[in-house]
C-alpha cells in the first residue's frame, strides 16, 4: 500500500510554515511521497486578490526545491472551474493507495462544509497542523474531531510540531509595506517575488 500525502493551498506566497508542515507531515505519516498542489480558483478565497496561478505554481516549486519526496503538481491548475479537494482526491485515489490530506487548523474545523464532505472523508485520512498557539481553540478542535469520527468514521490526526505563526496574508502585507520578509519565506521565493514585482514589491504599481 503506497502512502500518498496531499497538501493543497493557495500558496500566495508559500512560506517557511508551509515547508515545515510538509516535512513533518511526510515524516510522521510515513509517506512514500507528497503532492503539493496549488489551487487554481480556491472556492474559499474567490474574493481575494491573489497573483496568477503561474506565479504561485513557480513560487511553490522554488519553495520545495530540494525537499526529497515532494512533487509540486499542476493538477488543479489544469482543471477547469473551481478547485474542489474531493475532485483531486478522486483523481489521485487507487486500490493500492492510502491518501492523507494535510490542512491547517482553520480548514480542518470547516471540513464538514466542504464540497461533498462524505466522499472526502471516505477517500482520505485527514491530518492537521496547528499554525497558531491559541489555547481557546483546543476545546473546539477536540469537539470537531469527535464529531467527524462519529459522523464520518475517520479519526483526524495531528502533526506534532511547534506552530509557526506565519501566514501568506502577513507576508503579503509586509512586502507591500516594504518590510523585510527574509525570515518568513525561502530565499528563492523572496528573490522571485522581487524579480517579478509581486505583491506591490520592487516598483510602483507592482502586481498585488
Summarize the structure in words.
- With 208 residues, this protein is an alpha/beta fold.
- It has one domain (2-164): Rossmann fold (3-Layer(aba) Sandwich), CATH 3.40.50.620.
- Helix content is 37%, strand content 15%.
- It is built from eight helices and six strands.
- It has helices at residues 16-28, 53-63, 85-92, 105-108, 117-123, 137-152, 168-176, 187-195; strands at residues 2-9, 33-38, 70-72, 97-104, 125-129, 157-158.
- Strands 3-2-1-4-5-6 form a six-stranded parallel sheet, with helices on both faces.
- Helix 1 (16-28) links the parallel strand 1 (2-9) and strand 2.
- The longest helix is centred in the C-terminal third of the chain and has 16 residues, at 137-152.
- It starts with a strand and ends in a 13-residue tail after the last helix.
- The model is unreliable at 203-208 (pLDDT under 50).
List the keywords.
8 helices, 208 residues, 37% helix, 6-stranded parallel sheet
Q: Could you tell me the mean pLDDT?
A: 90
Beginning-to-end CA distance, first to last residue: 43 Å
Helical fraction: 25-40%
- Biggest sheet: strands, sense, closure? 6 strands, parallel
